[in-house]
Every structure is written in structure tokens, then in C-alpha cells.
Design a protein that fits this description.
It contains eleven helices and nine strands. By secondary structure, it is α+β, with helices and mostly antiparallel strands.
């Protein structure tokens, strides 16, 4: 079985990287964070026009007709670029929310007990309830929720947050196969974390080759070499896990992928900051932005504790000799 990317997949990924490089370069990324984040509607519509949100809708429904592996590749590029916005929720709701597939509507993610990102500019909410269900809240219920919500300080300057009241009080359309949507959302978040982890590693290696101390690049020092090597060791297993889960769409494999990708994104950003030294702590450096986004994303769709529970439950089933391949 050949697990190499196809030529079409490589072209798709390169096209997304080129689009983001042209429309969301470092200067625009910094400007977005300095104005408090939020969704760039013009870029959102451009992504919609390129087929990003309709990527997995069937062609008969006006979509592109591609699969989860292709979606993961694009979300990896999103993670590299630090593009803000509820991209996974909007793509997953593209078939249920009018205008989402075209990039005309923004669908924010709401989870019980957690602040909601990008609520102020959302046209709909994709709500994950505590029972495993998924529903869309829009129209009057959404407007009432927005009136009752309160902005809170966000660790990530690219993600404005609101504290919302009890989400169960707001009715919405229940989407079929909520477990699948939650699994795919966790995997897309893992892909973003993977892209962030890889970009942190590249930034650290680049800085280590350019910055000199005592007449030599700091990358020549063993301690810095070890930091950079550790970043590679974290990123590559996470990549294998994310790509494998994209092929199988297995909830347990997705949980493992999210766990590895969260760790890679957070720890690689920390080590990148260490390689940059005191410069890494300054606002002018980008590394702290990746660290803050990685922290926030680690708590979305599937937390480390929930992923560990899913993996432990699967191991317990295997130990007890239950049906091979049984999943949560």
C-alpha cells in the first residue's frame, strides 16, 4: 500500500501555501494580531471561492468532492500561517449553514463550559454538547446568545473570546452523526497543530544558523542542537499519526493524533522560544504567537484528558478480549 502523497495532493497543498503567502503574509498576520484578531471577511470569501470550505461536499451539492486526507493537508498549511478564525467549524458546517461553503458565513465553535472564539463575527454556532451531539445555532437564538455573552480577555491575540451562558438553553438544528463531526474536528485541529509545530521547528533552525555567539552560529552548540533535534522528534511522529488518522477516520487514532500534535505544537513553540533567547519573549518575535495559539487550540474539540480517556478505554477493550477493532 502506497502512503505517499499523490501529485494532486501535493499540488493542492502547494496551492494553499501560495494563496496564504500572497494574501496572509507575515505583515498581514502581525496586523491581524495587533488589531485583536477576528475574521478577515475578504480572505474568508476568497477561501470559499477557492473551494476550501466546500472541499468535502460532494460535487452534486456544489462541492469539490475530496476527502479527509486532503482537508488535513490544507489545515496543516493554515496552522503554519497562523490564520485566525473558526475554519474547522465552518468547513464541517458547510452543508448545513447557508453561505458557509462559499465563505459568506462564519461558523464559530462552541463547547460547553468554555469561552467561544470569534462569537462577535459569527453567523452561526456549531455547538458540541456534553452528550456527544452537535447542533447548529443561528438566527434568533444566536442573536439572543450574543446579547447575553460577555467578552473575556484572550491569551491568544488572534482569537477574541466571549463567555457565554448555558448553551443548552439555545435551540438549534441537530446534525446527524455528531460523533463523526467531533472526530473530524479534532483531527483538523491536530493538523493545524502539526503545521504550527513544523513552522516553529523551521524558525528555530533558521535562527540557530543565523545568530552568532563567540564567533560561531549558536546552532553549533550542543544544547541548541539537542533542542532542534527534539523538535523534529516530536513533529514527525505527530505527522505520521495525523496522516494515518486522516486515512482511517478512526476516532481512537484521531485522539492519539490530537494528543501528539498538541504536544508537538506547544513544546516546539517553547523550545523555539528558548533558541531565540530573550528575543523570543518580545512582541516583535512571532514565536510567542504560535505558543499562545497552540495552548488555545489544545483545549478545543478534544482535550488531552479526553484523548487519554479514549485511548485508555480502547486499551482496556483490547485487554478484556472484546471484539477486535471495536472503537468508542
Amino acid at each position: 500500500m502506497d502512503f505517499q502523497l499523490s501529485e494532486d495532493q501535493r499540488s493542492l497543498r502547494a496551492g494553499m501555501r501560495d494563496l496564504l503567502a500572497g494574501r496572509f503574509d507575515r505583515d498581514r498576520m502581525r496586523a491581524a494580531h495587533e488589531r485583536g484578531g477576528g475574521v478577515d471577511r475578504a480572505l474568508w470569501r476568497e477561501l470559499g471561492g477557492a473551494g476550501f470550505f466546500a472541499l468535502r461536499l460532494p460535487e452534486t451539492a456544489g462541492g469539490v468532492g475530496l476527502g479527509l486526507p486532503e482537508s488535513v493537508l490544507l489545515f496543516e498549511e493554515i496552522g503554519r500561517a497562523l490564520l485566525p478564525g473558526p475554519l474547522a467549524a465552518t468547513q464541517l458546517a458547510a452543508g448545513a449553514v447557508k453561505g458557509a461553503a462559499e465563505g459568506e458565513a462564519v461558523v464559530a465553535l462552541a463547547e460547553a463550559g468554555r469561552p467561544v472564539g470569534h462569537l462577535g463575527g459569527a453567523d452561526a454556532l456549531l455547538v458540541l454538547d456534553g452528550e456527544g451531539g452537535v447542533r447548529v445555532v443561528s438566527g434568533g437564538p444566536l442573536r439572543r446568545l450574543v446579547r447575553e455573552a460577555r467578552p473575556v480577555r484572550s491569551l491568544d491575540p488572534g482569537t477574541p473570546l466571549w463567555r457565554v451562558p448555558d448553551l443548552s438553553a439555545y435551540e438549534g438544528e441537530v446534525l446527524p452523526d455528531g460523533a463523526r463531526l467531533r472526530c473530524e474536528g479534532a483531527l483538523l485541529a491536530a493538523a493545524e497543530q502539526l503545521g504550527s509545530a513544523a513552522r516553529s521547528m523551521e524558525a528555530a533552525v533558521q535562527h540557530a544558523g543565523e545568530r552568532e555567539q563567540f564567533g560561531s552560529p549558536i546552532g553549533a552548540f550542543q544544547a541548541v542542537k539537542h533542542l532542534c533535534a527534539g523538535m523534529l522528534v516530536r513533529a514527525e511522529p505527530a505527522r505520521s499519526a495525523v496522516y494515518a488518522a486522516a486515512v482511517t477516520a478512526d476516532p481512537v487514532e484521531a485522539a492519539g493524533a490530537k494528543l501528539l500534535a498538541d504536544e508537538a505544537a506547544v513544546d516546539n513553540a517553547r523550545d523555539c522560544l528558548q533558541v531565540h533567547g530573550g528575543m523570543g519573549f518580545t512582541w516583535e518575535a512571532d514565536v510567542h504567537l504560535r505558543l499562545k495559539r497552540a495552548w488555545l487550540r489544545a483545549g478545543q474539540w478534544l482535550t488531552a484528558a479526553d484523548a487519554e480517556e479514549a485511548l485508555a478505554a480502547d486499551l482496556a477493550r483490547a485487554r478484556d478480549g472484546r471484539v477486535p477493532g471495536a472503537r468508542m
